[in-house]
Specification:
Elements lengths: L11 E6 L3 H6 L7 E5 L9 H14 L6 E5 L8 H11 L3 E4 L5 H13 L7 E6 L2 H5 L1 H4 L6 E6 L1 H8 L11 H13 L3 E4 L8 H14 L3 E4 L5 H8 L3 H19 L5 E3 L2 E3 L1 H17 L6
Parallel strand pairs: 1-2, 1-8, 2-3, 3-4, 4-5, 5-6, 6-7, 7-8
Antiparallel strand pairs: 9-10
Helix pairs in contact: 2-3, 9-10, 11-12
Length: 294
């Protein structure tokens, strides 16, 4: 059986406008796995410089505990991209989130800047896939550099780019979501689903999180703290999932001791691939335990 990669919980990734000092401070106590300090869409033009300083100061000051800190910079070709990238790389958060990645070169340019500035290894590249061109190039983009860690779906921009419609089941996006999932898993990267813009439809949001998990996403990006609890719950292993995982591991262990590579649990055949998934579920539970969320 191949070696299991370390499991990093990224159930919830909350976007915060980096121009909002109060929101940045409050994030130190929010139950989110990832804080995305946003310099792009959520920040007005006249606040770009202030937002850049505030988010970098926050990263350098620390105090966010287990939470991964990620800075979303303005995209290549905008007036703020170079200043954002230089400041973000010096601050050295856990991740630099690149919007509208359309080609491997977008990643390679940032990787080169990291080398030139001697950015610490813990700072990884996160890519937003939110255009038709980016989705079609996802296999090449997500294989382009070893500092890549996470793919993030930008479903709002993608819907507009496709001239599609926002629907509850998101059928217009299923092909694009599947292509990006395939590319991420092929390269052993994490992948997060896009945001839900409906803030007053808790049942619809819960169903959306369940759909994301069923498709294979590791978590979901969020735009409001009230989305955190249902999102974390959806992407955390349930008691039933944990019980099943333990049963699979135990049954497979018994079969191996008897010289067999397969066993049966609940009337279903269990092989190595099922054991790997069971081990991932247990590892995710273990990673969440120090946070009091398992």
């Amino acid at each position: 059986m191949s070696e299991q990669l370390p499991v990093v919980p990224r159930r919830s990734a909350l976007y915060l406008p980096a121009s909002n000092a109060r929101a940045i401070e409050k994030a130190r106590d929010l139950p989110t796995d990832v804080v995305i300090l946003d310099l792009e869409d959520a920040v007005a033009v006249e606040c770009k410089d202030l937002a850049r300083k505030q988010c970098c100061d926050a990263v350098l000051s620390g105090g966010y505990g287990h939470r991964e800190l990620v800075i979303r910079v303005n995209g290549k070709g905008t007036p703020w991209h170079e200043a954002d990238l230089a400041a973000a790389l010096r601050a050295a958060p856990h991740g630099i989130l690149l919007p509208k990645v359309n080609s491997p070169q977008d990643v390679l340019d940032v990787a080169q800047a990291m080398d030139e500035l001697a950015t610490p290894e813990h700072t990884r590249i996160w890519c937003m896939l939110e255009t038709p061109r980016g989705v079609l190039a996802a296999p090449q983009i997500l294989a382009s550099h070893q500092r890549l860690a996470v793919a993030v779906m930008g479903t709002s921009d993608l819907t507009q780019g496709l001239r599609a419609q926002h629907t509850r089941l998101r059928l217009p996006l299923i092909t694009a979501l599947g292509l990006c999932l395939l590319a991420a898993r092929t390269n052993e990267l994490a992948i997060l689903d896009g945001v839900s813009l409906e803030l007053d439809d808790p049942e619809g949001f819960r169903e959306g999180c369940e759909q994301s998990k069923q498709l294979g996403f590791d978590g979901k990006t969020l735009i409001h703290p009230k989305q955190l609890a249902p999102c974390n719950q959806a992407f955390s292993p349930s008691d039933d999932e944990l019980a099943h995982a333990r049963e699979v591991i135990e049954a497979h262990g018994r079969a191996r001791r008897l010289g067999s590579g397969v066993s049966v649990v609940g009337g279903r055949l269990v092989e190595d691939l099922h054991v790997r998934e069971a081990l991932r579920v247990i590892a995710l539970r273990d990673a969440l335990m120090p946070r009091g969320q398992a």
